[in-house]
Amino acid sequence: QKEVEQDPGPLSVPEGAIVSLNCTYSNSAFQYFMWYRQYSRKGPELLMYTYSSGNKEDGRFTAQVDKSSKYISLFIRDSQPSDSATYLCAMRRGSARQLTFGSGTQLTVLP
Amino acid sequence: EAQVTQNPRYLITVTGKKLTVTCSQNMNHEYMSWYRQDPGLGLRQIYYSMNVEVTDKGDVPEGYKVSRKEKRNFPLILESPSPNQTSLYFCASSLLPYTDTQYFGPGTRLTVL
What residues are paired with B13 via a beta bridge? Predict the structure, then answer.
């Protein structure tokens, strides 16, 4: 079983929809949680970063961490065609030097 | 412009022919790493380097070598490539080892026939 599970999609939504992307994990030692966005033929770029449980908002994006359920989410409000990309969750144990990535969810926002 | 560069971007080679993929960053970052990305498996770390002359294995190091002789460069070496190393490779760097903001290069698509 993978340490981090992510539904690969693909997910298609109309412009303006609220998008929910999720990851589950099995290792309760993970403390740092990230979402990376990867456009086609590009490297991933950090989108959101959270520490431990709670919510973090940045513009149209909200990252949510529920450590009791070992579940993290990324919400995108008022989705735009420019949000079309693959979204990768990533997480790290406290003092670890490595990130563990999910396999990514491919999102398409239709105009 | 702050960036991570990789070369080549695309490479087709044959089994057993040694190759090197270069990676360079201009941000004076201490930490650099190499990942491979495969469908359904996500990004898996091959090797990482905490600083010059300090390297360590990631999750999938078999068949790869790295070196860090200069802070800005972190080449990935495949001494004897095999078809199962066909993949999309990314180099990444970050200011410090525990910094989660990693900056990724544009990727190198390698095909081993």
Answer: B112
pLDDT digits (tens, 9 = 90+) for A37-87: 999 999 999 999 988 788 999 999 999 999 999 999 999 999 999 999 999
Contacts of A4 in chain B (CB under 8 A): 42
Closest by CA to A101, choosing from B85, B29, B45, is B45
Three-class SS of residue B83? helix
In A1-111, at which residue ranges do the beta strands (DSSP E only) sit? 4-6, 11-14, 19-25, 30-38, 45-51, 54-58, 61-66, 71-76, 85-93, 100-101, 105-110
B3 is written with which tokens? Answer: 């960036």
List residues of A whose CB lies inside 8 A of any B CB.
Answer: 4, 6, 8, 32, 34, 41-46, 49, 88, 90, 92, 95, 97-99, 101-104
